[in-house]
Amino acid sequence: MRPDPPKAMADDLKARLDTFLADTEGKHEHDLPGLKAYRKTVGRDKADRDMFVEMLKAPYNLEMFVAIDKSEDEGGKYISDRRLAMWTDMNGRPFPGGGRTVQPKQPSLPDIAALIFAESVVHSDNIPKAGQWMWINGAQFLQQQAGYNALNGSGDQAVVFKKIVAKWLHNRTDPMEMSNIVYMLGNGGVLRNFKEAAPLLRRIVLTDGVQGYAKGQAIMHLTQNKPKEELKFLREILKGQVRVGDYPGVFFDKAKPGKFLDETEPNKIVTIDGDMLVQQVWFGKPNGQAEMHSCLLKDVALAFLINQSGQKLRDYGFELPPGVIENTGQLGYANYAFTSDDKRAAAFAKFAWYQMKESMKGGSKEPAPKDGPPKPGPGPGTTPPNGPAPAVDLPLAVPVQPVPPPPPAPIIKK
């Protein structure tokens, strides 16, 4: 009597896995889904092999790897489905369109590793995103208990998992993913010690489509981690442009998958939208009324530059809401704002003069800007200029465009 097809397939897979594990020196090729990409991305030593086998023990991970081997489109569709299945299992929710509620089930480390690995080899553009589930991605699963323990652990599985996560961080390009992951890259975050963290934080600041509050958080994390090393980057946000060769591992070359622009076009200039809204800052008034003012990306960069130079935000016309004090040792983002474009323009002009004087004294390692202070933009959501803005020509203010409410910024109280 012939065995039924599912059992035959399971027996065949087990035999191939046993053969794979027996090849401890990796001398032979093996017909296993996803193995070629896994060896290239992760490695081929014993711990790597053991994790790969653990992943393939789950049928859904095996099917996902089969889909990845077929094509980017097939792999992307399966990754999208797998994200949803893991999310609904984790939260005990029925699938869309019906289904019974199930007992919440935490994902295992091999399941999280399989998804993160799949996301690292399939470009995010090929992973369908639709409806209320479009914000679900690997970032949510890294925070679950198994992933968190591995990121803070030191065993064989933890070491392999960190290699997979490092490749995943290296490849992040989707604005929604970057908006979700930013807080894990800073002080206290489980991803802060990865060498890929700093390039990814800069990519978050410079990528169109990332939420403004995430850009503000990225600047805060960069400056908290290595404040002196980020002075040049902060000044270039004010200037409105960067040379890609100065920032390895930040800009991908869309024409050459897997390559960065600093390798292919190091002298290419990329424009920064310094006028992007980071957050609305609310100021209470004595009469019980309140007004809000916009904190822009370039405002945050200027605030950190002022703070790093040992000066005070209020001396440059920044205002803070009632009850918030300026803590120079722990400057946040978007707890301050200019209440008019005139004050913003005056602050940028004042800081330009400060840089010039420091440069003449030799007190600043960075040269004073040659193009004058950045021209204050008309408001968030506008197209940035092509190159450095001309000096001081105040525009008319434009009403602030509505944006989705961001997570609350850290507030420092008296």
Could you give a short description of this structure?
The protein contains 16 helices and four strands. It has 414 residues and is mainly alpha-helical. The strands form two sheets. The chain has a two-stranded antiparallel ribbon with strand order 1-2. Strands 3-4 form a two-stranded antiparallel ribbon.
Structural notes for this entry:
The protein is mostly helical and 414 residues long. It has a domain of 152 residues. Helices cover 45% and strands 5% of the residues. The protein contains 16 helices and 4 strands. The strands form 2 sheets. It has a two-stranded antiparallel ribbon with strand order 1-2. A hairpin with a 5-residue loop joins strand 3 and strand 4. Helix 4 packs parallel to helix 6. The chain is elongated and about 75 Å long. It starts with a helix and ends in a 53-residue tail after the last helix. 36% of the residues are buried. The N terminus and C terminus are likely disordered.
Overview features:
414 residues; disordered C terminus; two-stranded antiparallel ribbon; mainly alpha
Rg calculated over all Cα atoms: 25 Å
Briefly note the structural class of the backbone: mainly alpha
The fraction of residues in strands falls at 5-15%
DSSP summary, beta strand count: 4
**Which whole number gives the mean pLDDT?**
81
Helical segment count: 16
Approximate shape:
elongated
**Spans of at least 5 consecutive residues with low confidence:** 1-5, 366-414
User: What's the main sheet like?
Assistant: 2 strands, antiparallel
How much helix, percentage-wise, in residues? 40-55%
- Intertermini distance: 80 Å
